[in-house]
Structure formats: C-alpha cells, structure tokens
Amino acid sequence: MLLNKLKCFFMKAHYRTIEEDDIDMEKLNNLKDRGAILIDVRSKQEYEEGHLENAISIPEYEIKFKAKEILKNKEQNIIVYCSSGIRSKNAQKKLYSMGYYNVFNLYQGLENY
Predict the structure, then answer these.
(1) Which of 68, 104, 106, 112 lies 20 to 30 Å from 28, alpha-carbon distance?
(2) 98: which residues sit within 8 A by CB, 6+ positions away?
(3) Is 8 a catalytic residue?
(4) How many domains does the chain have?
(5) What pTM was computed for the model?
(6) DSSP labels for the chain?
C-alpha cells in the first residue's frame, strides 16, 4: 500500500515539474502569433464547451491517427494543451515518437488560466 502511494506521488510530481518544452500562456501566445498550430487534446465535448481561439480539436486518444493527416509539417511549431497538462504531456510524447520536433505543452493546462 505504501509503495503504491509513493509511486503515485512521484508520478504526480513528474507531471507537475516544468520541463524545457513546457510553456506558459505568454509563450503560447508568442508562438501562436508566429504561426504555431494549437491543438486541444481534450475530448470533443470539452472542446465544444470552450477552447482557445483557433485551436484544432484532436483528442489525446486520437493523436496517433489524426496527426498524420492534419499535421503535415513535422518541423512546424505545435502547441498541445488540455485541462491539467497531463493529457497534453502524453500527446506531446506521442508526437515526439512520431517524428515531430517542435512540440510544446501548456504547463498545467487551462486550470491556471
């Protein structure tokens, strides 16, 4: 039981630690102004309830299938976001594994904005 609690604690800490490719809302807006693609990786329902301006909806669970048809340029700046930053961090890792180079994650998602 204690081992599971420690594992959960470290997993949460990992996702809450800001990394080099995590950005805040100011950097998001700067990248967006320079032509970055903004991807909302929340569910379709969450997206329909409200999303950032000009964001494209690709739920995290569909990213591997839809990225190839929507994100043609693997060198273009791509910003992923969700509610808390966890799904977008997973989507970011999937995009990296698919060969996308410039993928940024909105740190802690929309919960702080």
Answers:
(1) 68
(2) 64, 67, 68, 74
(3) no
(4) 1
(5) 0.83
(6) -HHHHHHHHHHHHHHHS--TTEE-HHHHHHHHHTT-EEEE-S-HHHHHH---TTPEE--GGGHHHHHHHH---TTS-EEEE-SSSHHHHHHHHHHHHTT---EEEETTGGGG-
CA torsion through residues 17, 81, 79, 54, sign: negative
Single out the catalytic residue among 38, 82, 86, 91.
82
Q: Domain containing 48 — which CATH number?
A: 3.40.250.10
Report d(CA 86, CA 2) in Å as an integer: 24
In a domain, 10, yes or no: no
